[in-house]
Automatic annotation (TrEMBL):
EC number(s) reported in the record: 3.2.1.39
Family recorded in the similarity comment: Belongs to the glycosyl hydrolase 17 family.
Domain of life, source organism: Eukaryota
Molecular function terms from GO: glucan endo-1,3-beta-D-glucosidase activity
InterPro entries registered for this protein in UniProt: GH, Glyco_hydro_17, Glyco_hydro_17_plant
Catalytic activity of the protein: Hydrolysis of (1->3)-beta-D-glucosidic linkages in (1->3)-beta-D-glucans
Biological processes per GO annotation: carbohydrate metabolic process
Keyword annotations: Glycosidase, Hydrolase, Signal
Full protein name: glucan endo-1,3-beta-D-glucosidase
Amino acid sequence: MIFRFFHPFLLLLFTQFVLLQAFTGTYGINYGRIADNIPSPDEVVTLLRASKIRNIRIYDADHSVLKAFSGTGLEIVIGVTNGQLQDMSSSADHALNWVKENVQAFLPETRIRGIAIGNEVLGGSDNALWGVLLDAAKNVYNATKKLHLDKIIEISTANSFAVFQDSYPPSSCKFDNNVKQYMKPLLEFFQQIGSPFCLNAYPFLAYVSNPEDIDINYALFQPTKGIYDPKFKLHYDNMLDAQIDAAYAALEDAGFHKMEVIVTETGWASAGDQTEPGANVTNARTYNYNLRKRLAKKKGTPHRPKNVVKAYIFAIFNEDSKNGPTSERNYGLFKADGSISYNVGYHGLNAGYSSHLSLKDINTQGLSRSYTITMILCLSALILMIF
Ligand SMILES: *[C@@H]1O[C@H](CO)[C@@H](O)[C@H](O)[C@H]1NC(C)=O
Ligand SMILES: *[C@@H]1O[C@H](CO)[C@@H](O)[C@H](O)[C@H]1NC(C)=O
């Protein structure tokens, strides 16, 4: 009882000193679960802790996940699904109950830090949702405010590249004409409450749509001559930086000069259809390995050097129940059995059989050498055990 009595007070004290920021590191990961064969949430916690990944996004508010994350220190952003948007926008009570049941009930043991309102709604195929997104966001925000959670829970929504037009070169990027009337008031609201612009950025998809004109090395953070943006007077040596600066350019064009861009999804498929050139294990490893190094530098982009790039990788697992092209089911850093899809320095659930690299090892020694050493050590241990 005493604890319950003090609890709101402590929470209030806590919120006074914590800056509202859902993403505390630079490297996070999306935990998509459209699969019938992936490890349990408890095993995922083990996997994430071993990989030292602390920032996680899920696409719903699944209670088995929220329970498994309790007391782990993992920071999680949860989601209102697109299917729930209509209800959230039409009823403040509905939003309040949702926040009580899916957020308040799990705090503070489960570190819920943000709520994503829908996913890739604007510019997406379900036009009926474009007009309800803002009211859904407002109702959910008001609910967090009513429950005194607005200082620890960040409200946002992830945008795909479908919200833009003319994204090449970056300086020419604008919000699409059809999207603009919905985007502007949404951004005004996010600006008021201090939320960032969330971008799902896939050099992979840009490359697949135009493999003749795009140098794959530019998409993969490999050595390349890059591109020059004449208006920005800036040089880009990788496409992800250019995509982020395209988002900044669109925000500036719409009058939002201070808003930060956060990458809520990026990744590369390790398998794809005939029509998806570049989707293979070699390229997926190269992208994710170089991306990890890029984020570890804690640097901004050419146009916004002071805004350190933060990104959530897509995704933890290959998801076998997803629709669409083969690539959709093959974005995982891990396979459904918990083993690694390719080596970027993490080890799988069956840890003995994969490497134990840290990022430092990768940077200083190069991958193949320490991988070989680890394999030799594992083999020697095995031989010792046998004899
Ligand atoms: C949110 O709350 C504010 C006052 O706290 C109110 O003015 C506003 O109308 C509310 N918004 C919605 C969508 O209910
Ligand atoms: C992956 O694709 C690249 C071209 O993008 C090719 O050079 C490479 O050989 C392919 N790797 C595998 C394992 O198929």
